[in-house]
Amino acid sequence: MAGMKDVARFANVGIGTVSRVVNGSGYVSDEVRDRVNKVIASLNYTPNHSAQSLKTQKTKMVGLFVPTINHPFFAAIAQQIESMLDKNGYKLMLICSQDKVEKENGIIKLVAQNRMDGAIFFTHQEHKDISPKYSIVALDRHLGENIPCIASDNYESTQKALDYLLSRGCKKIGYIGGKPGVESEVSERLRAYRDTVAGLGMGERIIYEPIAHGTEAVYAEKFLKLYGECDGVFVSGDVLAIKLYSAAIRSGRRVPEDLKIISFDGVMGNWMDTPVFTTVRQNLCKLSEAIVEQLINKIEKRDYLQRVIVPCDFIIGETT
Cα(91)–Cα(304) distance, rounded to whole angstroms? Predict the structure, then answer.
């Protein structure tokens, strides 16, 4: 079986150069990298990652926690993050927490024991005792001091969406969204709504409750029963928006003539062709870049940012 020394000898380079190519770390010219990779392929060389981990104390493995994989937003951003990690020489372990804090605590222990280089948390759970030394990054959630939080510009983008509903003639605008169980940047969407309607003297029409994945249709129906007079709705999530649209059509409302709907996330195009929603589209590529960049900065003990805000795009579709 070929080893690293054999690769170095046939490629006419040092063992250190082969190591940098294999691990994707350090500078290697394109010409040398191609030559080493050709030798690796010809010799069918397979790196001993277990031995490398013992030597470097790095596993090159990152855990990604999502509450559920049966959700278009989590599926879409997980794909982006995996691609970003792969470009940086890391492998992804995807864990569906099912909102179980025990599973999430188990991964925190793996990071603490150096059995995983770091973790990315999309969590609905409270975690107050995570050591700031651990290489952990969160999306939307504030998990503690020195744990980077990456988020979209929830307040500003929601304001823009509401301004658009007003420009389209809406006078009774509602809000429906899931209430996070922990402190979250997502709450900025509701704050933007409340600030906007208060400034206009417009009454609030809100459903803001803990909405479990898979129960969105129940809350969509509830919203229409409570606020049937609404002529515009900002919906904090694509799945909720789809359920609200379906419920509105079943009740005889026309979209957008009777009810204008704007959703938040903007990933429905991957799942359905019609209708094309007017949406605040989160920039999953930029979010993933920021998440992976700050995580690797923590892993490599470099300076990192405590909070990164990524602008959203506003896409006008058929529902307004």
Answer: 21
